[in-house]
């Protein structure tokens, strides 16, 4: 298929993405606030939540940092790695920016009995003491100037004895920090108190920092910088996200699970007497009257829903429910119905997953989401630049993972193309949401396009393939490709394939493709297409193999069971929303294993395993296929009632 020259996102976008990703390591090595070789400060966090501020000089490397951490915190560092986002730090620390958070992770699950645990001398402890202040803003530029003043106000209050207040709701630990007048001005969420993190105060523990969390595509301890990313991406305060920064914060109010954090004597920290340092998100507290779950949603302003929805699409929010939309009444406001309230979106810790997941957009079924975008909204979307957005996040949040940035680029391109085509917010959200068939999830329409784009890219790379369809199907559909070593040179391992046994190449399970191109069902599918309304002629422009692929994915049950499609926002019933903030699952206060509560999740599309050239080619194919997907969506919306099953 040739590129659509009328598309608002030209194929040059993919070339631009390639040019930026090729310079990825260059940018990583030049993010030291203009001081690549001078003294810097970093904040090292262990996987159990301990935090230490360390001053670096030119002679420091990963080994010396781990040694100093071991002396100061009396924690074992053998068989451990020092990581900075995607980077595993070795000898060179030049790519680490000033005031960056680092994570120390163990390479093995269990500590060896022979691992030495030093007994530091008083001199050693004094030399390695954390000399940072009560609150230190991490890796933040001038964009955070508004929040820096707020931090100063909170520090003044702490010094005169104004203690923060714990937040009793939710699954994770959170605290209201106050100013000198006792007013709540900020909400702080420590990363080691997230759901399933080591020091979670609600009993949801069982995971170390860096492991899969509440959403398997979001790691434990990494929701904080996602909160900051949502604020940084909300240009011109378009969606009204409160100012947010990442901080190292020290206070005795924080929760410490007995036996997790240790002091220099190796005993459990008594948080009533000892101040504990944490890495946390620090967000301005916005006074409000209630949240959206306490109010009729039909009265909310259309523009507010559209703007929040646009942000949610861009950041691939997997947790937008009514409970994290604050509502503030505007005194004296008059005019159109709904103009007297303001919406404030919060809780963006589950955005920007590392792979395409199942988003949750509660606004999908709100009437405002079905109203077309305004001219101002379309202009805002048209001016979005996903490449510049990703570069900005690399600079402002250098610990962010490349996989998260690829999801941002993909979802922003999808939003721009869909809005330009004329789809409304509800239609865009529905195309991103998975459906339930029986008890199994099937890929969303967005994922179907991604799967096909990936297949086309791989097909162009493979010169000679001979598909062999296995007759023994299981839940993971795989296709073996015969490979005769004697007739062909050794092929390099492609990101889209895994080497199977006996020299064969097996398709990665994420590519759940129906490649039975020899099936004689083309006439049947054509007949089905002809039985629809006349507007479906646009959908028939899909290449034959794409039509069969899409139909197969949309009609099969991944567990081999039949059943009727049920469109559910986010792919799960409302009561089983990932956030679970109002579901009562945390009542009782007993400790819970993370493995007992993590929902089963399927990853149909992963973006991180593609090289730069393949990623660029994938985006080109993705954009080409989108136009046909949009025409199919419009066709089905015209020919069928909302909520019925549909096919490309």
UniProtKB/TrEMBL annotation:
Region annotated Disordered sits at 107-130, 516-536
- Domain PI3K/PI4K catalytic as annotated: residue spans: 161-466
The record's section on Pfam families has:
PI3_PI4_kinase
Enumerate the UniProt keywords alphabetically: ATP-binding, Kinase, Nucleotide-binding, Transferase
Q: Is Kinase there in the keyword field?
A: yes
Nucleotide-binding: is it a keyword of this entry?
Answer: yes
Q: Which SUPFAM superfamilies match?
A: Ubiquitin-like (SSF54236)
From start to end residue, where is composition biased (Polar residues)?
107-118
Protein origin, superkingdom = Eukaryota
EC number(s) stated in the UniProt entry for this protein: 2.7.1.67
Top EC category:
transferase
Q: A single Gene Ontology molecular function, please? A: 1-phosphatidylinositol 4-kinase activity
UniProt family annotation: Belongs to the PI3/PI4-kinase family. Type II PI4K subfamily.
This chain belongs to which protein, by name?
Answer: 1-phosphatidylinositol 4-kinase
The organism encoding this protein is Ensete ventricosum
């Amino acid at each position: 298929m040739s590129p659509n020259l009328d598309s608002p996102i030209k194929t040059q976008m993919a070339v631009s993405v390639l040019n930026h990703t090729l310079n990825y390591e260059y940018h990583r090595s030049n993010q030291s606030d203009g001081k690549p070789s001078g003294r810097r400060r970093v904040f090292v966090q262990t996987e159990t939540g301990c935090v230490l501020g360390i001053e670096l000089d030119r002679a420091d490397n990963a080994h010396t940092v781990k040694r100093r951490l071991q002396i100061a915190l009396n924690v074992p560092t053998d068989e451990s790695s020092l990581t900075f986002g995607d980077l595993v730090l070795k000898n060179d620390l030049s790519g680490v920016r000033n005031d960056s958070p680092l994570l120390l992770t163990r390479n093995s699950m269990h500590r060896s009995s022979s691992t030495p645990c030093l007994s530091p001398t008083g001199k050693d402890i004094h030399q390695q003491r954390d000399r940072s202040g009560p609150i230190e803003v991490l890796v933040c530029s001038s964009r955070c100037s508004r929040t820096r003043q707020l931090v100063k106000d909170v520090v003044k209050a702490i010094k005169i004895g104004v203690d923060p207040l714990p937040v009793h709701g939710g699954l994770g630990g959170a605290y209201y920090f106050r100013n000198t007048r006792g007013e709540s001005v900020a909400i702080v969420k420590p990363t080691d108190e997230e759901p399933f993190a080591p020091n979670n105060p609600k009993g949801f523990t069982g995971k170390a920092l860096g492991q899969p969390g509440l959403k398997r595509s979001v790691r434990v301890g990494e929701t904080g910088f996602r909160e900051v990313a949502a604020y940084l991406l909300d240009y011109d305060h378009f969606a009204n996200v409160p100012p947010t920064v990442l901080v190292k914060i020290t206070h005795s109010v924080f929760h410490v699970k007995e036996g997790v954090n240790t002091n220099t004597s190796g005993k459990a920290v008594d948080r009533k007497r000892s101040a504990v340092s944490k890495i946390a998100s620090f967000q301005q507290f916005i006074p409000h009257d209630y949240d959206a779950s306490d109010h009729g949603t039909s009265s909310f302003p259309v523009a507010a829903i559209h703007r929040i929805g646009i942000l949610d699409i861009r950041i691939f929010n997997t947790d937008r429910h009514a409970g994290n939309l604050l509502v503030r009444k505007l005194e004296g406001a008059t005019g159109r119905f709904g103009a007297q309230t303001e919406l404030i979106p919060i809780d963006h810790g589950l955005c920007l997953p590392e792979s395409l997941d199942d988003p949750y957009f509660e606004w999908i079924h709100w009437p405002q989401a079905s109203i077309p975008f305004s001219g101002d909204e379309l202009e805002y979307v048209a001016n979005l630049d996903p490449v510049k957005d990703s570069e900005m996040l690399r600079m402002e949040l250098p610990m962010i993972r490349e996989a998260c940035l690829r999801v941002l680029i993909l979802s922003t391109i999808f939003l721009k193309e869909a809005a330009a085509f004329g789809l409304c917010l509800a239609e865009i959200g529905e195309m991103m949401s998975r459906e339930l068939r029986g008890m199994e999830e099937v890929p969303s329409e967005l994922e179907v396009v991604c799967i096909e784009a990936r297949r086309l890219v791989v097909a162009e790379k493979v010169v000679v393939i001979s598909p062999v369809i296995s007759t023994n199907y299981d839940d993971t559909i795989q296709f073996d490709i015969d490979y005769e070593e004697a007739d062909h040179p050794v092929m390099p391992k492609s990101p889209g394939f895994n080497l199977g046994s006996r020299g064969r190449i097996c398709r990665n399970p994420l590519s759940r493709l129906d490649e039975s191109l020899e099936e004689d069902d083309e006439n049947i599918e054509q007949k089905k297409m002809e039985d629809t309304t006349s507007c479906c002629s646009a959908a028939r422009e899909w290449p034959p193999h794409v039509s069969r692929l899409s139909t197969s994915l949309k009609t099969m049950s991944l567990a081999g069971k039949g059943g009727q499609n049920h469109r559910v926002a986010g792919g799960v019933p409302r009561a089983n929303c990932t956030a679970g903030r109002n579901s009562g699952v945390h009542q009782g206060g007993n400790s819970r294993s993370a493995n007992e509560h993590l929902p089963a999740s399927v990853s149909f599309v992963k973006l991180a395993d593609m090289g730069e050239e393949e990623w660029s080619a994938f985006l080109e194919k993705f954009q080409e296929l989108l136009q046909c997907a949009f025409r199919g969506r419009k066709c089905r919306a015209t020919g069928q009632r909302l909520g019925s099953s549909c096919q490309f």
